[in-house]
Design a protein that fits this description.
Radius of gyration of chain A: 22 Å
CATH class of the largest domain in chain A: Alpha Beta
Structural class of chain B: mainly alpha
Largest interface: A-B, 44 and 37 residues
CATH topology of the largest domain in chain A: Rossmann fold
Strand content of chain A: 25-35%
Shape of chain B: globular
Structural class of chain A: alpha/beta
Number of helices of chain B: 14
Number of domains of chain A: 2
Order of helices and strands of chain A: EEEHEHEHHHEHEHEEHEHEEHEH
Largest sheet of chain A: 6 strands, mixed
CATH architecture of the largest domain in chain A: 3-Layer(aba) Sandwich
Shape of chain A: globular
Number of domains of chain B: 1
Strand order of the largest sheet of chain A: 5-6-7-3-8-9
Oligomer: heterodimer
Helix content of chain A: 25-40%
Chain lengths: 294, 304
């Protein structure tokens, strides 16, 4: 069953088009990474899914229309829309009390046990906590909700590496199971790469790449070609080429004609492309193509 | 039964709605109001603080002897300090309501916590109604309770002082306490809760709309319309209506000339005139319009 489904999702702010007809389908139990440059429309897409902004086109989240049913949808969906959006005046104990008061699927004992692993005190106000602690608190609240979809928009922006690592570790170990779906939008691709089951690149309001991680692994191959082999490798029409370590790194789509791993291995050392490499290649090509048309 | 052959004709593209497990609306409203009391502690601190100061003033004056004389000798004016204290409490209610309403839908957008509140299964309607219930219900209950408690203590203290002068019986005879309190509550609910409610709803609406300087945007239309009226027709009706609405200038009772207090002997309650005054009903209708607009705004507006 699809957890999120969109068809021709569009959103314009005045003359600026934030979403230009996005089609996507996220099945239950997946962890989707939504990756894109600044202004690509990631936040707008997430806000549309959460009922925070109006949109054109079709959009269903857990079978509901988010814009008209936000309050009911939030029984099954949680989100961290940004870092540090917890009200600064609230006490930790009040935050737990409040969520327990309004959310039917919240387990205060669970939240307490997550908080017990941190140094956050119950009587502290949010304004007295560090940025990392605020994120820990928010995550503890969210993980104690038995939701079916969790949406995260740059949840670790501005946090140090230890907090960031802890954040994704607890998300995976203590929260995720096959019945839940997680959508994460971020710039920091490297950190979530190993967590994802699916990846989607968004550029200028369009979905330009949408694959499962298995497909990414089986389909894309990088080869570090020695300089004398580079011309021959280039003849096979790589998706992208960059210079490094005194040679060329060429990225190939194995679905293209006449390319297989054995053949590429002849040019040099094979490497698995990272999502960041793929992102640069896909977005770069996209922009070149658009430039050529214009 | 063979379920396999009866499999769904076409798996629907749109997944079915999950059985809702929502909490009752009253519970969501209750917690939304608790949240307001946590965030805006002035709602209960201000009335308590003002009542404390008024009490202190009353005690001091009793010792100094300013009120001591009336309590002992001129019992006809024994009610004056009670009226003054109640007046100060009502003024506190107005001030707290105005500042609360101007920030209620602005603060959560300013500190971006609106993202957190909207991640909870609480509708915009519930949130706005919880906020509107502060000047309409919560604050009046607090102010009325604190006022009665304060007057009760004043009464005890006044009795003790009067007893020292041997005139406690006279004081109680000249102070019809229960009529005084009945009149006070009536005046409070009609003139300071129902009558100014549209003004508070207007302030709520502006706080949900303005990106900054909510106070300015709330007042500006009154100044502009009032200024235009003054220039064009040389009158002040609009400003008078709005101002009168805020300070509770409602036709709730007739008072004898020269007596501004709520003296049960000389005041005639005019419930009929209040209930039938167009000002009340036009005001309440406007309040509903303002609240509906505030709900829409909260749904549409993001953080600032």
């Amino acid at each position: 069953m699809a957890c999120i489904e969109t068809r021709g999702l569009r959103k314009a702010f005045g003359t600026t088009i934030a979403l230009d007809g996005v089609d996507m389908r996220v099945e239950e139990g997946r962890i989707l990474g939504l990756i894109g440059p600044n202004g690509a429309g990631k936040t707008t897409a997430l806000h549309a899914m959460l009922g925070l902004t109006a949109y054109q086109g079709e959009l269903r989240v857990l079978g509901r229309d988010p814009w008209s049913e936000r309050d009911r949808l939030m029984n099954d969906v949680c989100f961290i829309a940004d870092v540090a959006v917890l009200p600064r005046w609230i006490r930790v104990s009040q935050a737990i009390e409040y969520v327990a008061g309004v959310h039917p699927r919240f387990d205060p004992a669970k939240a307490e046990s997550f908080l017990a692993k941190t140094t956050i005190r119950r009587g502290s106000r949010v304004r007295e906590l560090s940025k990392g602690m605020v994120t820990q608190l928010h995550l503890a609240l969210v993980m104690a909700i038995d939701a079916r979809l969790l949406v995260l928009d740059e949840p670790t922006l501005g946090l140090d590496i230890i907090f960031r690592k802890q954040f994704y570790d607890s998300l995976l170990n203590d929260y995720f199971d096959r019945n839940r779906t997680i959508v994460v939008a971020t710039h920091q691709v490297e950190e979530i790469e190993h967590v994802l089951t699916d990846v989607m690149f968004l550029d200028r309001g369009r979905a330009v790449f949408n694959r499962s991680m298995e497909e990414v692994e089986s389909r894309y191959q990088e080869v570090m070609a020695r300089s004398e082999q580079a011309a021959a490798a280039r003849a096979l029409k790589p998706m992208y080429e960059r210079q490094a370590f005194g040679g060329s790194i060429l990225l190939f789509d194995l679905k293209s004609d006449g390319i297989d791993r054995q053949r590429l291995a002849a040019f040099g050392e094979l490497r698995t492309p990272s999502i960041a490499d793929l992102f640069v290649a896909v977005i770069g090509n996209q922009r070149d193509a658009q430039g050529a048309v214009q | 039964m063979n379920t396999q052959s009866n499999a769904a004709p076409e798996s629907p593209a749109i997944s079915p709605v999950i059985a809702p497990a929502s909490l009752p609306w009253s519970r969501l409203l209750y917690w939304s109001i608790r949240r307001e009391l946590w965030e805006y502690r002035s709602i209960y601190i201000a009335p308590l603080a003002v009542a404390g100061v008024a009490l202190l003033g009353f005690c001091v004056s009793s010792f100094v002897g300013i009120w001591e004389a009336p309590l002992r000798l001129n019992v006809a004016h024994a009610q004056t300090p009670f009226d003054m204290a109640a007046g100060v409490m009502m003024l506190t209610g107005i001030v707290v309501s105005v500042f609360y309403c101007l920030d209620a839908l602005h603060g959560e957008r300013r500190d971006r916590s609106v993202f957190f509140w909207k991640s909870m299964p609480v509708s915009d309607l519930t949130t706005v109604l919880a906020k509107a219930s502060i000047p309409f219900f919560v604050l009046p209950v607090i102010v009325a309770t604190v006022t009665l408690a304060m007057q009760g203590i004043m009464l005890l203290f006044g009795t003790a002082v009067a007893e020292a002068g041997g005139s406690a019986g006279e004081l109680w005879r000249s102070l019809p306490v229960f009529q005084m309190w009945g009149l006070l509550l009536y005046h409070y609910v009609t003139a300071h809760v129902l009558w100014p409610f549209p003004v508070y709803c207007w302030l709520l609406l502006v706080s949900g709309w303005a990106r900054r300087a909510a106070f300015l945007w709330a007042v500006l239309p009154v100044l502009v319309i009032g200024g235009f009226e003054r220039m064009a027709f040389h009158t002040f009706h609009f400003a008078e209506i709005v101002g009168g609405q805020l300070i509770g200038n409602a036709p709730v009772m007739d008072m004898s000339a020269g007596n501004m207090g709520l003296d049960p002997m000389t005041t005639h309650v005019t419930v009929g005139r209040f209930i039938s005054s167009p000002g009340l009903w036009i005001g309440l209708a406007l309040a509903v319009v303002f609240l509906a607009a505030a709900v829409r705004l909260r749904r549409n507006q993001g953080p600032i």
